[in-house]
Write a structure and sequence with these properties.
Elements (H helix, E strand, L loop, with lengths): L10 H14 L4 H12 L3 H10 L3 H6 L14 E2 L2 E2 L6 H17 L4 H4 L3
Antiparallel strand pairs: 1-2
Length: 116
Amino acid sequence: MSQHRVYRMKFSSVYPLYVQKAERKGRTKDEVDLIIRWLTGYSQAGLEAQIERQDDLETFFAEAPAFNPDGALIKGVVCGVRVEEVEDTLLRKIRYLDKLIDELAKGKALDKILRS
């Protein structure tokens, strides 16, 4: 598997960008956390521990307790690429999270974002 540069980015450096993006559009940190927990299976304490440990995105997703099988329902375009067509599993998971945060920032209802 080729190593994408994004794999080495620290989750602790990406996380505040997700929160800032959401807050600029009137959404909250709690909503960002809920989305991340829904997708990855982390508890709030587990999520906070990951942020403190400053692991990279590869480790963050590898240690995710239970990646949500409904993640496969996430469709759309992020950075000009359809997330459902990304072949690399890890990169697809990263793009799923990007897409969910985009949907939050665009004002989509949480029940729609969480595919309920």
